[in-house]
Amino acid sequence: MAYTMENQLLDVAGDLGWSFEEAVNERLSEMIGPSVPERFRRLVREVLLRLPGSWDYSYATWRVEADGERIPPTHFPPLGWKEVRDICYPEYVIKITPSEMAGWSDEACSWTLAQSFAYIAFKLLLRLSEDGGAGESLFSRSDEQAHAEITRTIALWWGFESELKAYDKEVCSQKKDIRRMIQ
What we know:
This protein has 183 residues and is an alpha+beta fold. It has seven helices and three strands. It has a three-stranded mixed beta sheet, covered by helices on one side. Helix 1 (5-16) packs across helix 2 (20-28) and helix 5 packs across helix 7. The longest helix has 24 residues, at 106-129. It is globular. The N and C termini lie far apart (48 Å). The model is unreliable at 131-138 (pLDDT under 50).
């Protein structure tokens, strides 16, 4: 079995004399915005615990925020920079739309989160391979379709197959129905 974030946080808890819940809460305390509803907080936690240990490779930060605006299906977390003690770290924001995702199953929502985390891992890996970790990405914004396919592959490699099937069944078929109604 692979070494996951759950294993990593269990090790952290043991090393620091904390409970597992304390370790998870410490890791997620600044990562999930206050606007994120409880259901999605739980899903972020569940997905995160299944990711490979050290999936984010570095001190890069990420956070999840709820957004009321509709987000395009190819939307991926934007990159910003967070300064901590005069050092800039990449910061990614995963924006979810609870109003749009409310009718989706937990599995379909988890796929969206897993693919967003895969995107972050992919972008961080590219950054680490370029200029010793600095510099712009090898891909331009026009390569979003390539990013989607790569992140899909990463998320599947991480074990989110059933979540993809649920997403395809629920969300993709729903979008096809809407397209038919418009035509």
